[in-house]
Design brief:
- By secondary structure, the protein is α/β, with parallel strands linked by helices.
- It has one domain: Rossmann fold (3-Layer(aba) Sandwich), CATH 3.40.50.720.
- 40% of the residues lie in helices and 18% in strands.
- The protein is built from ten helices and 15 strands.
- The strands form five sheets. It has a seven-stranded parallel β-sheet with strand order 3-2-1-4-5-7-12, sandwiched between helices.
Length: 311
């Protein structure tokens, strides 16, 4: 059993990861804020998890931690709407991680980044050895964060460059993360009985189920000593058409609600207009492969938005 500190453990991915890891490990989480919905989730779903607000408890400097998992990283929406604040929070968070590692010479860090650090075009293939040429503030800030992590933490850091992670939320307070593509489609299907895309739907995404993320994290926790590389793409390795993916969500929502959930497209074109591959060579060498079903958590996701709609 490892002793783990999760930064950003109240977020969309962080809360689900907290639920998973707390079944096998001793988990503490830290966040800048906490809402009533998140407090309820902590009390009822993960009562064995220790929680602290940033700066409110010395417990996060416990020298016996084995791992820090850093999910307190800026979203695309934050970079788009409040970049300066997102950057300040991001750098402050990494400085905090560096301090923890200085205080504990055996501590290791698993940092969640994004494949957007590579940039838009790479002849259809994004490999872990590809040069980084980000084209927007989201990718550039995550590139800066990666460089700072590697500079200050060295081989004690592992970085996951993630594609689009999808799954049911652990609680109802998602904040800006509710605008993530998968969640937004599910919310619209429940609230409006239709899904309106901003784009023409002709773009592509690499979607990865939560359960595959959990398996990758558990693998790194168990095999970190044998890893020589510090960067791993976390992806399904396949890209799907946005319109096809959306229609699958609409079909399932319609079946559950006994209606026809329609899909309407917008006028914007997508940055990823052709199929692409984000390789995951490092994780596959360690024995990991993406096995999860993209759509097996749709019912749970719909249920979350039905509860929120009724509230």
């Amino acid at each position: 059993m490892a002793k783990i500190l999760i930064k950003g453990g109240l977020g969309y991915i962080g809360a689900r990861l907290t639920e998973f890891l707390s079944k096998h490990h001793e988990v503490s989480i830290i966040s800048r804020t906490i809402s009533p919905s998140q407090k309820l989730w902590l009390r009822t779903r993960v009562p064995n998890v220790t929680f602290a607000l940033v700066g409110a408890s010395a417990g996060v400097h416990d020298p016996s931690f084995d791992w820090v998992i850093n999910l307190a990283t800026p979203s695309a929406e934050e970079c788009l709407t409040q970049f300066d604040l997102a950057r300040r929070n991001c750098i402050s968070n990494i400085n905090s991680c560096s301090t923890l590692l200085k205080e504990n010479p055996t501590l290791r860090i698993l940092h969640f980044s994004t494949f957007h650090v590579y940039g838009k075009k790479y002849e259809g293939i994004y490999e872990e050895t590809s040069a980084l040429r980000p084209v927007n503030d989201y990718g550039r800030l995550h590139k800066e964060a990666e460089e700072k992590i590697l500079s200050e933490c060295g081989t004690r850091a592992t970085i996951f460059r993630c594609t689009n992670i999808v799954g049911a939320p652990a609680h109802l307070d998602l904040g800006l993360q509710e605008k993530l593509f998968y969640l937004d489609c599910c919310r619209q299907a429940v609230e409006k009985g239709m899904i309106k895309l901003k784009t023409d739907g002709l773009g592509f995404r690499d979607f990865l189920p939560m359960e595959d993320v959990f398996a990758a994290v558990q693998l790194i926790l168990s095999k970190r000593a044998s890893i020589s590389a510090t960067i791993a793409n976390l992806s399904s390795g396949n890209s799907l058409s946005i319109i096809d993916f959306t229609r699958q969500i609409a079909k399932k929502a319609g079946e559950e609600q006994g209606i026809i959930v329609t899909v309407a497209t917008g006028l914007e074109s997508d940055s990823f207009s052709e199929p692409f591959t984000v390789t995951n060579s490092l994780l596959k060498k360690l024995g990991w492969s993406p096995l999860g079903d993209l759509f097996n958590e749709l019912s749970s996701t719909f249920a979350s938005f039905r509860i929120k709609k009724a509230a």
